[in-house]
Design brief:
six-stranded mixed β-sheet, single chain, five-stranded mixed β-sheet, Cytochrome Bc1 Complex, Chain A, domain 1, alpha+beta, 17 helices
Length: 446
């Protein structure tokens, strides 16, 4: 390419050197709280993300659901703003709202707002996590019970595919419990229970906070110290070790819906593992874009299903590679066969050069899109820091380029094996069919 044509290509959107953007300044406050100030000077908005190492993974059967309950209750008012209306009006004045999500292994609080509102947002978030008053507890209890009932059928059985898989894999581990908890627990928790849980887990050593946008990093660190510096240090919540069954797992739950929901999953690698990105590329080969293998094979060529997807879940000590689909009851085995064939192909056949370049192009695009998304950047640094040092997002681009089709084939052969397999069926699949699944499906992965 001539130099003139190359310059024209760059002006039209050619390659850029992204190695220096965005710039992250990490800090640790005296109380142990981790802070990440990420400069994105070309943007016009900012994002604040606070992660707390608090979730159902750190609960017992007796306390299951309390982390999620607490996440709801901190919005009901604080010592300074005694009810939910007054508290949320403060966030509304910033032109935004505070969002919160409970995961199995952490809780997140985040807000996307104008940069000049960051200091006030930090003050409000610190107030929310440090001094909730638990006003309107019974009102919120009713809300939580209604939310929990969404996952149950008329007989009170959990019919959420994700919850069923976790309970199958880890029946005696907190990761196998639901995020919402049982209704009986929700009916019992009181303000004393909630505050004891908050004081144990909402501590500085259990927190990581990131601010991304057109910010000054030194000013951000000072502001975080001003608003969160008085949070008790506490101690990091320990992870209870996982035991792995090392055998094929099956679970069938009969349900009278019009279709059967299926999940085929394999235990893979935890977040930060050297094979993590290769597993992600295996997922992308199957389900990234309308020309991906899963969409083409199951939907476009065979018309088997409308809803199929491949996802990855990553925890500090384990990962899951999941294929999900919803299909007419009598065609369940057909879908399972396609899932198995697609995975075996990843083990047996190298990815062709043109398909590899396509999936790499989409993977680069996804990472570069994240670099332009202030929320993605803030959540990346705060969320990653929960369980490992938060690497720069741009480092992922360099790591991505080191992966080859041979790496993808290697991880498929290593992790898509019977002893890592779990199959969950929610629908009208009969015992004789389950026997066929038990006998035939694992053999395909040998």
């Amino acid at each position: 390419m001539s130099s003139g044509k190359q310059k024209e290509t760059e002006r039209l959107g050619g390659p850029r050197d992204v190695s220096a953007s965005p710039r992250c300044t990490p800090a640790i406050l005296a109380n142990g709280m981790r802070v990440y100030a990420v400069e994105m000077p070309h943007l016009h908005t900012a994002s604040v993300a606070l992660y707390v190492r608090c979730g159902s993974r750190f609960e017992t059967r007796k306390t299951n659901g309390i982390s999620h309950f607490l996440e709801h209750m901190v919005f009901r008012g604080t010592a300074r703003y005694p009810d939910a209306y007054l508290l949320n009006r403060c966030f509304d004045r910033l032109g935004s709202s505070l969002d919160a999500t409970s995961f199995r292994d952490c809780t997140s609080f985040s807000i996307h707002l104008r940069p000049e509102g960051v200091d006030e947002a930090l003050r409000l978030i610190a107030d929310v996590v440090s001094s909730p008053t638990y006003q309107g507890l019974d009102i919120e209890r009713n809300v939580l019970i209604e939310e929990t009932l969404e996952y149950l059928d008329e007989d009170g059985r959990n019919v959420d595919l994700d919850d069923l898989e976790k309970a199958l894999r880890w029946p005696r581990h907190p990761l196998g419990m639901t995020i919402t908890g049982p209704v009986a627990n929700l009916e019992r928790f009181d303000a004393e229970d909630l505050d004891a849980h908050r004081r144990r887990f909402y501590v500085a050593s259990n927190m990581a906070l990131a601010v991304a946008g057109p910010i000054d990093p030194e000013s951000i660190v000072r502001a975080v110290d001003r608003h969160f510096g008085s949070v008790a240090s506490g101690t990091p919540a320990p992870l209870k070790p996982l035991s792995r069954p090392g055998k094929v797992l099956f679970r069938r739950v009969r349900n009278d819906n019009n279709q059967t929901e299926l999940r085929v999953s394999f235990e893979t690698v935890p977040a930060g593992h050297p094979d993590e990105l290769a597993c992600e590329l295996a997922r992308a080969i199957l389900d990234e874009g309308m020309t991906s293998r899963l969409q083409r094979r199951v939907c476009d060529e065979r018309g088997l299903a409308y809803d199929v997807r491949c996802t990855i879940e990553s925890y500090a000590d384990v990962g899951l590679f999941c294929l999900d689909g919803t299909i007419s009851h009598h065609r369940s085995w057909d879908l399972l066969e396609q899932f198995a064939d697609l995975l075996v192909e990843l083990k047996d056949e190298p990815v062709a050069d043109d398909e590899w370049e396509l999936v790499m192009s989409r993977a680069r695009w996804a990472l570069q899109t994240a670099l332009d998304d202030v929320d993605s950047v803030a959540h990346w640094y705060a969320g990653t820091a929960m369980y490992r040092p938060a690497e720069h997002l741009t480092a992922r681009l360099g790591q991505l380029e080191l992966i080859s089709p041979a790496d993808l084939q290697r991880v498929a052969r290593r992790y898509f094996v019977p002893e890592r397999l779990a199959v969950v069926c929610l629908g009208q699949v009969y015992p004789r069919e389950i026997k066929r699944w038990r006998d035939d499906l694992p053999q395909r992965f040998l």
